[in-house]
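re: ur msg from earlier - yeah i can do the flavin mononucleotide complex, just paste it... oh wait u already did. ok heres what im feeding in:
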Amino acid sequence: MVSPDGAAPAAVDLGVSYAGMSLKNPILTASGTFGYGQELEGLLDVASLGGLCTKGISPARRSGNPSPRICETASGMINSIGLENVGVDGFLDAKLPYLAGLTRAGSSVWVNFFGTDFDGYVECARRLAEGVAARGGGVSALEMNISCPNVHAGGLEFGTDPAVARKLVRACKDTLDAAGSPLRLLVKLTPNITDVVALARAVADGGADGITLINTLSAMAIDARKRRPRIATIFGGLSGPAIKPVALRMVYQVHRARVPIPICGIGGITSGEDAAEFLLAGASCVQVGTQSFAEPGAAARVLAELTAFCRETRVARVADLIGALDTGDTRPPACIT
Ligand SMILES: Cc1cc2nc3c(=O)[nH]c(=O)nc-3n(C[C@H](O)[C@H](O)[C@H](O)COP(=O)(O)O)c2cc1C
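and the outut:
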């Protein structure tokens, strides 16, 4: 809502609700780009953020892929970290105590997780839910990364087939319900598909509480002089400003299709105005990813800039930006190129 008298609002209401959670503001940090939060303490006020999403956790710890596993590209980077992480037990013992403190300070803590097969996902969800509950809480949601290769299906990503994705989400949701867990189940989709709406509908049908859009785009980079790929695994995931237009398009498509669960937007956000674009496209909150590598305090700056953007554009409640894109003629064009 624009301030009634057209004047800049004295204070901007930054609160949003997302998947049944109250966020003090819509800015979170993205999985894999912010460690487990504690590493960034001292570089920004982590507790000032709406929330934080951890590095992806698997049932057992993983050491990831061989180097080189990161390379810079035009307006972005490619990574093939290989989901290196401390595993469920390492997370519960070493990382949760700090994160529980953030929860007490009013930030929303999301734990990203995955498995390398169907049962691995379900086991991970169950052990995280039980482990967090046994330690008195401190986490609001599990964010399920379904962009992982299914070792029993020739390496095909779980998140590329709506029927498989629905079944997997349903199994994890049932597991959380059976454990009496209050944790929300959020599902992070891969952009490496042709029909994002079909996939979004499938995970909503499976019982997801929210959708995170998007993960990295499958990509490669070549060193022509050496005639070698720049990443040891040849392919990796592209992130950063280069993918923002793709992410915006997918958020908007899912929002326009009225998939009945809310969206967290992510991909190439480097400024408060970028964040506003995702909210206008239909996201209820956003995550800042790759920019944190170049600038550890990026998420806090994005929050300050979004607040200033609201003031300048006379928006009293940031929630009023959500889905407020004015498309004029909303008919899809017959041909888009
Ligand atoms: C180095 C690196 C590691 C990542 N690790 C994870 C991960 O463990 N789980 C996950 O779901 N996404 C992971 N991502 C994807 C990001 O969370 C995010 O979806 C993606 O980078 C797009 O956002 P950005 O352009 O702001 O970085 C990773 C990205 C990068 C660059």
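cool cool. The pocket of flavin mononucleotide is lined by residues 30-33, 55-56, 79, 81, 83, 112, 145, 188, 215-216, 239-240, 243, 266-269, 288-290 (CB under 6 Å). ping me if u need the other ligands too
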